[in-house]
Amino acid sequence: MAVKNIALKTKAPETDKREKSGGLELYLKRIFALMFAAVGVTALAAFLTMATPLWTLLFTETGLSALYYILLFGGLALSIWAQVRAFSFKPSVGILLLMLYAVMMGVVLTPLLLVAVTGNPYTILSAFIISAVMFACMALFGYKTVKDLSFLGIFLFIGMIGLILVGLASFIWPALVGGTFGTIVCLVGVLIFALFTAYDMQTLKRAYAVLGDGNQKNQLAVLGALHLYISFVAMFQYILSLLNRN
């Protein structure tokens, strides 16, 4: 994707005087501020959906409604389009799209959250804490490590496509993600997006050193926030699924 293409232009993280004076730190703070704002929007959207009759629109007598699938696939399409066009938007437009995607994800997560609330509400808090700790550790690793993680890119992309295909297949054969195989899928999902966090973190750090234009760095910050947001929410989703397998 756009961030990864930029990262190919450099093989070693280099910093200039401006970065050493705090430019890189401010850039990363902007990324995390946008990312956690999006997580907050997702949490609020999910809460409002569950606390109002809106949640009934996501279900039919036989399963999930057409609206759910529209939001699910519409959100996927929006995230891909936003990443492809990231450097064509003004940063403000990118932020708006990020928040729109966060709202859609909040609604899409509602059925999983309702299962957790019905079974054991504390698993939601547990999943969030575990996800936050894993995310922080992997982000720090990606920022600090001197090992080039670019070799992970193709493997992580293939793994993510595999998870999407399994998810699509589960709509046709729900039993596919049941039992042991479903547990393995969740564990693989957690691993893939944990590694994506470290990979994206290193890529964003390197990309900052390549880009000299301030506007491009702001655009990259929004794109980076989207990448890290996707990884965090995906880890949370898979971990919550693991905690509610029964």
Automatic annotation (TrEMBL):
CDD domains: BI-1-like_bacterial. Keywords: Membrane, Transmembrane, Transmembrane helix. One of its GO terms (cellular component) is membrane. This is Bax inhibitor-1/YccA family protein. It comes from the Bacteria. Its main location: membrane. Belongs to the BI1 family. The chain crosses the membrane at residues 31-54, 66-84, 96-116, 122-142, 149-173, 179-199, 220-240. It is found in: Membrane. Pfam families: Bax1-I. It is a multi-pass membrane protein.
